[in-house]
Automatic annotation (TrEMBL):
Pfam entry (one): GGDEF
Record-level Gene Ontology MF annotations: diguanylate cyclase activity
Domain named GGDEF: residues: 244-377
Enzyme class at the top of the EC tree: transferase
Organism the protein comes from: Mesorhizobium sangaii
This protein's name: diguanylate cyclase
Amino acid sequence: MLDFSSLLLAAALSGTCLSVTMFAIWLTAPKAGFVLTVACGILVLVAHVILFWRYTKDPDPLLCQIVLVLLSLGFLIMCLSAMQYLGVPGYRRAVAPTLAAMAICAAVTFIGLDGVGFIITYTTVTALLSAIGAMFWINGSHDRRILLVVSFLSGTCAVSFALCGMVLLARGQWTLAVAPDNWAERLNSVVAVACMTALGALTLSLHHLQAQIELKAETMTDPLTGLMNRRGLMSLYGEKRFGPFMSVVMFDLDHFKRTNDVYGHPVGDQVLCRFAAVIKKYARTGVDAFRLGGEEFAVVMSRMTDERAYDLASKIGVAFGTEIVATPLGPLRSTVSGGIGFGEVNGRSLDEVLTEADIALYVAKRAGRNCVISGKKTSKAEPVEPALRSA
């Protein structure tokens, strides 16, 4: 027969080691806030296990209340860590019901119905673990294998706590005066140790996965404008074939070198950020923007006819022309030129479409700037309304 006290101490030791590991990871990567939350949750659960072990030796009504509160609180923190990692909003939806259950549990335990208190707590923990499993199952967008294992472990642990409550309920043990000790409690101790160890290892894997994703995002993001960079463009579209409803617009800010020379590079950076903000304003599903370097930008448009693509590119040019940047030398207004390259029925490579867009952009520059030229109509410039003087 399994020694119940040994199981509890094993769970406490396992949890302590995991918590220390989580804290060490967080100290090396402070941005991984969910790791710190997990560590705090595990520490609370370790405190619960230690006090529960003490309660099995020396039952005390006040100690019973503390033990049950710590159990619910620990898994509440674990649930919040899952929401934090997955970006699920509405923490109050988990906190409010759990606090209400903890208050009810404390009340019934205070009047001597500690068995009912255990049942309420086990039900609360089952709900929290089920919520964790469901969140990872539904909201996980990274490595599905890891996320599905997390869901399975959370569900298994939830079942073990549910069994503990069902045994007390089936036996009608409303008043215990001692720590519950039955086959479900022993099974729960084994499952808790196994799941806690496994979830700790998976937390490390999730942290490593998130770090990789963040690093990849940083390498593909332009730090000044927040748009994706040339690496991002090649990553997303380098191997893609551009069909008839895909196009690329190449934008180049007019007289940008003169802007830097006259107004200074900080003002030039503001102009670049303003143009990026204009592009973001017109962004929608199927529209991805990139800063290729310097004053050059590219916008990839999917699921758009040639006419709609040209119309959107022209609107971006006109909208940017209305932007005003305050400088020590007075308000600065800038313009932009654009050229559009299109895909074909048989498909074209990114390089082919960019080349067409670049040729059209060159035509736009020679046509007087402040206009958007279609690669299919490079013999005809179609300037937009200038409304502003060029920088």
